[in-house]
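dumping this here before i forget
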Amino acid sequence: MFGQVQRLEVENFRSIRHVEVSLGAVNLVTGANGCGKSNLFNAFRLIRASVEGRLAAAVAEQGGLASLLWAGPRQEGPVRMRLKVAAEPFEYQVTLGLRPASELPLFPLDPQIKSETVRLAGRVLVDRSSSVAKMRGLEGPWNLRTDLVDAESIFAQIRDPERYPFLFQFQEMVRRWTFYHDFRTDDSSPIRRPALATYAPRLAEDGSNLGPALFVVTEQGDNDSLRSILADAFPETEFVSDSEQPFMVLPGIDRKFHPRDFSDGTLKFLCLVTACFSPRPSPLIAFNEPEASLNASVLEPLADAFAYASQFSQLWITTHSDILARAIVKRVGCDPIHLVKVSGETTVAGRLHRKGWQSADD
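structure:
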């Protein structure tokens, strides 16, 4: 299928020396706390940042390249982080390393791109080494670029959709990938305040446009299925949305409850299901440990929301909750990708067969 991510490969990223996984429609990543699930998730996000043209900023946000490199035993010589993704019909690979001290870099924590390649249907169209890149369009000869900044990807520096339409097309596709890592629910969280009433095609990654996004779902999406899932999770509770924020109505109480009154779990659950019901869904939606702070009673309805989203989007879900994992497997029939940590290294133990993950009743 066009745009579906087929393969992800990560090398020398934090606890990951080398992991390669083949991806399907629903990708359920399981494993114990501390096994490296979030590291794999964050490596995936770093690929998106590189294609969006903000690699250096994303590396800085995570503490600089030195904090991202493989921390285990090393052989002599430089350590290189390599990230690779195949998303039909594209393939993208970027290799990063530390800057040599002999260069007296102004910003030593910035990454240095050692190599970068872009392929379309197997054909190499970008072949880069540090600040020099050979590039060609879909037809025609190679062109040489020698003026690249070696801290940033090719996508941040080449903006010519007429000459290199494949770069523009791949970047636009990846920009629509959505990663939900966490939703702040503290008193100062933007989710607890009214949002600007403007059209929201999907939930923002920080949930800050929850009100407008949920309102779009109720007006233009599958509101009946959404309300059914909310009713299963919160019986005898009605959720009402306007263009700025949702409200909660409880039986026997005259006033509406605002998001500032919601419990952390209720607010987070509402964000998760809103992300799953967008009328204009992302081609890929990734959730990192969505069960955090949720009561076990809402995990089955949450699995229903993920099953609904899987009809329209490729999903990546990391979880250490057996209840949620079994519920997802029961609904969509995927084989979980199980991670373990051996001597400090994250490895793929294999895919757990779905029959072993059915509920006891099955």
